[in-house]
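Morning. Coffee machine broken again, so started the prediction first thing and wrote up yesterday's gels while waiting. Chain of 401 residues, entered below exactly as on the submission form.
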Amino acid sequence: MEWESRYSERARGMKASEIRELLRLTQQPDIISFAGGLPSPESFPTVDIAEVTTHIMLTAAEEALQYGTTEGYNRLREYCAYWSKKEGIEATMDNVVITSGSQQGLDIVSKILLDPNDVVIVEAPSYLGGLGAIRAYQASFTAVKMDDEGLMMDQLEDTIKKMNHPPKLVYTVPTFQNPAGVTMIEKRRKKLVDLAHDYDFVIMEDNPYGDLRYSGDPVKAIKAFDDEGRVIYTSTFSKIFSPGMRLAWIIGHETFIRKFVIAKQSTDLCTNSFVQRILYEYCRRDLIENHINKIREIYREKRDVMLESLEEYFPEGCSWTRPDGGLFLWARVPEYIDTKVMIGEAIKERVAYVHGAAFFVDGSGTNTMRLCFSYASNEKIREGIKRLGRVIEKEIKAHKA
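Came back before lunch.
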């Protein structure tokens, strides 16, 4: 049977994630991969999870194994509202929905806000998962550049002024941005909220990495400066607890949350009730703070090892960001090198990364790459950067020849 003509227009426009396709290739055990944003397996609290799971099965099995509400387990929702206070966010349980990973949140927000050809402003570069969720609902993208202090507000306002209509949505990953690793300064966060008021658009703030700070001072969430309900905030337990649990949360104005819940009901009825109970019990025991402190130390060391290795092995003409947290840094090679083409040579050297153009909606960034430092061991980080440095040196020599 011929299928292509039977797909919806929306489905015909869907594209596979370049990272997911690359990860299939990098599963080979001899390849050192800086491609996927995978937490380190040593960061998983396996013993505590086993103990908590046993406790749930012995004390609350009937409730944990039953359907739950679409909004999520109330005690976990309350905890997420409390947890978000350290970001400066004032919320109650009624502002919170537990989602099946933050990707579900991004997808449902896009579903209920976007019509075909609505304009969404995104960062250049931007997170692939966010772009994929938005693209699935046939919106149009406009990209605005970033610098080391995040999205550039003067360029954002100039871009909006040149548009026939204001954007429907601005999507941002303001803290330890994926893929660039930079953090938007507080002044720009306040300005973004002001622009949302002046030009009447919604902000989607995606914050998966905020708890993974290794240096520098904390910055309040954009949502903390929102007094109109214009900011939709999402965060996740994937990076600080377990990605396999697929638990995240979204915070929004109560009116928006009601519509979000209706849309979620057509997707999965409820997020996994069993793992919600496990996570809440883990948090109730005050285990998560100590766990986050532990993984901060793990990732701080890995970040520093990668930065030191880049200094040692990358040739002259390359540069990179120095993130205060998160899982990624962003590297630039000479402009005449196409990192998408170079990935083939890197695989021959048994090392992998994600080429930068994948994160740009306009096809730019061809001489950039995203490097994840969280997954590989310290020894493999050093060896992988050494191999990658050799690949770049070969490209430079070939160009000069």
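The domain at 4-45+290-400 is CATH 3.90.1150.10 (Aspartate Aminotransferase, domain 1). Going to sketch it on the whiteboard this afternoon.
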